[in-house]
Design the sequence.
């Protein structure tokens, strides 16, 4: 499996992730912390590594965390109100290449 994760400096807690998403979302999320009475231990910090993607295809993150979250949320909002998943996805891919690599629209 592959992870396409942020750089270490962009890793944040779930609480901060929710707060960031709430800045540009119309539907505000509420975070509820429940006491865990289970004997199972959960890690307090979970981090994905993009090492395999970097090593295999020389991939590194191009958008910072705020840009990434905004694009994910835009995609979610657009596809929630429309069945045009493929069109919206292609538009975002083209926008990504134009923003990051200064390449004109790909067809």
Sequence:
């Amino acid at each position: 499996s592959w992870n396409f994760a942020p750089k270490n400096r962009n890793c944040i807690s779930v609480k901060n992730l929710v707060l960031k998403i709430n800045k540009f979302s119309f539907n505000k999320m509420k975070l509820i912390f429940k006491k865990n009475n289970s004997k199972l231990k959960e890690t307090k910090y979970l981090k994905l590594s993009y090492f395999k993607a970097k090593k295999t295809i020389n991939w590194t993150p191009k958008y910072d965390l705020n840009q990434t979250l905004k694009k994910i949320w835009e995609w979610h909002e657009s596809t929630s109100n429309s069945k045009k998943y493929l069109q919206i996805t292609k538009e975002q891919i083209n926008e990504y290449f134009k923003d990051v690599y200064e390449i004109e629209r790909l067809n």
